[in-house]
Every structure is written in C-alpha cells, then in structure tokens.
Amino acid sequence: MTCDESPVLQGVDPPDAAHEQPDLTRRRVLVAATTALGGVGIAAATVPFISSMLPSERAKAAGAPVEVDCSKLEPGTLLTVGWQGKPIWILRRTDEMLRLLGTDDQRLRDPQSEEPQQPAYCKNPSRAIKPEYLVAVGLCTHLGCIPTFRPDIAPDDLGPEWRGGFYCPCHGSKFDLAGRVYKDVPAPTNLVIPRYTYSSDVQVIIGTDVG
Q1: Active site amino acids
Q2: CA–CA dist 200, 25 (Å, integer)
Q3: By CB neighbour count within 10 A (0-12 exposed, 13-18 middle, 19+ buried), where does 201 fall?
Q4: Are 171 and 145 in contact (CB under 8 A)?
Q5: CATH topology for the 60-206 domain
Q6: DSSP letters for 157-203
Q7: What is the pLDDT of residue 210?
Q8: pTM, entire model
Q9: Where are the domains of the chain?
C-alpha cells in the first residue's frame, strides 16, 4: 500500500438493531454468577483477615510471662532469656560480687536507685528480690545497645577501679553488678529491672509482679 491509498477495513459489519439490543437474560445470569462468586471470594478473604486479627501464639508469647529455671546457673555466670523482644539477664552473683556492690557508690550516678527504673520491691542495694540473683533488661539506657558482661576485676581496658559489671563498647557506658550506671558516661539511668517474681527458690517468672 502506498501513501496515496486509503486503508480498507475488512470483516467489520455495520451495527444493526439486533447487535444494539442488550441480551437482558444473559446479562442477568452473568450478574448473578458474578455476585455469587464475589460473595464466595469475600467470605474466603474474610477468614484469613479475621484470623490475622486474632493474637498469634508468637504474639502472646512475646508479652506473656516467661518462667526460667535457674537451678543449673552457676555462681558468677549470666543467663540471657527473651521477653517482649528484649534480652533479659539473670546473673547469679557470688558472695564477693555482693560484697563489692557497696564499695563504689561514690562513682555511681544513682546508687540508691531513686530513678524509677525498677519495681518498688527492687529498690534496694542489690536491686533484686533475692540478692543472689540480678534480673535486668540487657539494654543500655543510652541508645539500646547490648552491653557485655565483664566480671573480671581491673582489666587493662577498663582500668584499675573496675570491680566487675556491664560495659557497653558502643559508646563507653558502664554499669555495676546491680545494673547501676556510673557517672560521666552517656547512659543517663540505671538498667531497667523488669517485673518478676519467684514460683520456687530457683524458678523465676519474668513479667509478673510479686503477689
């Protein structure tokens, strides 16, 4: 075909009255079928949507109390468990660790735990229900980093006055073995002590207050 030739449309019938009249019966059938299928689709879609609104087992576990058996925790060792998406430390302190808690108050920012970083029943020198066991949230109160457990005495990198505790290498915050923050570090407050209680001498329930 050249540029002077006009295109010819083939196979196109002119409209007539029969083509323009809607097939009402067929349309009603299609509408009814579409509505029925749509209803099934909505019902099917509703099931997973409703299910998604129900709390999953994982979601319940994230906020539910967690019971921890401390019977195999040796003195001087630290156990980490998860609760509400946070690391929870359980430190079984030795007699020497407990003795050292009262020797460094002048270097601590809040030695008497005046800031509400713990339940009232843990507002004491050991910040614990039982002095032997420290239960604390293992997140630095500066930017939420996870400090390292440093029970060693006077290591080269922490200096001769270090008596054991928790050190955040990210920005240098330091906490003693009761989770109390030292002065002149970025962290503004002591470590958080969560709500907890005991169901036996060695069973700790995290997330439940003392009854």
Answers
A1: 171
A2: 77
A3: exposed
A4: yes
A5: Rieske Iron-sulfur Protein (2.102.10)
A6: TT-TT--SEEEETTTTEEE-TT-PBBSSSS--SPPPPPPEEESSSSE
A7: 81
A8: 0.71
A9: 17-53, 60-206
Q: What is the pLDDT of residue 34?
A: 45
> Which position has the token pair 């509408």?
31
Beta carbons within 10 angstroms of residue 53's beta carbon: 7
Task: Map residue 120 onto helix, strand or coil.
Answer: helix
Alpha-carbon distance of 69 to 133, in angstroms, equals 12
Number of residues assigned to the chain: 211
Give all strands (DSSP E) within 98-172, no chain letters: 133-137, 148-150, 165-168
Cβ proximity of 166 and 150 under 8 Å: yes
Where do we find the tokens 């008596």?
A: 163
pLDDT at residue number 174: 97
Residue owning tokens 């019966």: 25
pLDDT of residue 188: 97
Alpha-helical runs (H) found in the chain: 17-20, 24-53, 57-63, 95-100
Cβ-Cβ contacts under 8 Å for 64 (sequence gap 6 or more)? 207
Tokens 């390292």 correspond to 148
Q: Check residue 171 and give its pLDDT.
A: 94
Nearest to 89 by CA among 188, 185, 166: 166
What are the per-10-residue average pLDDT scores of the chain (211 residues)?
42 43 47 45 38 42 86 96 96 96 94 96 97 98 96 94 95 97 97 97 93 68
φ/ψ of 163, rounded to 5, equals -115, 20
